[in-house]
Write a structure and sequence with these properties.
The chain has a single domain, classed as Alpha-Beta Plaits (2-Layer Sandwich), CATH 3.30.70. Helices cover 29% and strands 27% of the residues. By secondary structure, it is α+β, with helices and mostly antiparallel strands. It has 3 helices and 4 strands, in the order βαββαβα.
């Protein structure tokens, strides 16, 4: 499984409706929400086989505006090699 950051923005006007949609599909607690600080966006780190699968945690109406970013980690050795290759 790969790890993905799922970012799902919405407007202040749509906030209650969008949160209700996440509640309905069962993923409300998988996300951290910036709404309380004026950033109407949900953020989740999801394990999935691919980006398309990771996007399924977002309600269908929100998928066109959601973003999925594949995450990876670098070891100290990899970072050192990057500098040598420059």
């Amino acid at each position: 499984m790969e790890r993905f950051l799922v970012i799902s923005p919405h407007t202040m006007k749509d906030c209650a409706d969008v949160l209700s949609q996440f509640l309905y599909i069962g993923y409300i607690t998988h996300f951290d929400w910036g709404c309380g600080d004026g950033d109407h966006t949900g953020y989740a780190t999801i394990e999935a086989s691919n980006a398309k699968e990771a996007l399924l945690v977002v309600p269908p109406t929100q998928r066109p505006i959601a973003k999925v970013v594949k995450l990876n980690k670098f070891s100290p050795e990899e970072v050192k090699k990057f500098h040598k290759d420059l």
